[in-house]
Design brief:
Blueprint lengths: L1 H20 L4 E9 L6 H11 L9 E7 L2 E4 L5 E3 L15 E5 L3 E8 L1
Parallel strand pairs: 1-2
Antiparallel strand pairs: 1-6, 3-4, 3-5
């Protein structure tokens, strides 16, 4: 399950920050998660809770901001909503759509004690 490795990476980042900043406990973890990123939000929430046990993030609430897929169509020059990589442009039907948002996975903030 890909989400386990993502959760493990988040917990490692949190542990690194805890060492650097001197906090002991995290209350909330804020993550931007792209809708095109192949990470299932519900599975990530479950895996995070399991992986965080016994760490500074134990009991922390993982809050996901889901970023919708957006692309730029080179053919018609429009910014368009897309639901998958390599999507056809919904405006002109051409295949030259470059993903501009929705593929990210970024730890954006921690609320700590």
């Amino acid at each position: 399950m890909h989400e386990v490795s993502v959760a493990e990476s988040l917990v490692e980042l949190i542990a690194d920050e805890a060492r650097k900043e001197g906090f002991r406990r995290v209350r909330r973890v804020h993550v931007r998660l792209g809708a095109l990123g192949h990470v299932e939000p519900a599975a990530l929430l479950f895996c995070f809770d399991v992986v965080a046990k016994g760490t500074a993030a134990d009991g922390a609430r993982l809050e996901l901001e889901i970023v919708p897929g957006t692309g730029w169509c080179e053919a018609c020059g429009r910014s368009v909503a897309i639901e998958q990589h390599y999507a056809l442009c919904p405006a002109c039907g051409r295949s030259h759509v470059e993903v501009t948002a929705g593929a990210e996975l970024r730890l954006t903030g921690l609320e700590v004690d």
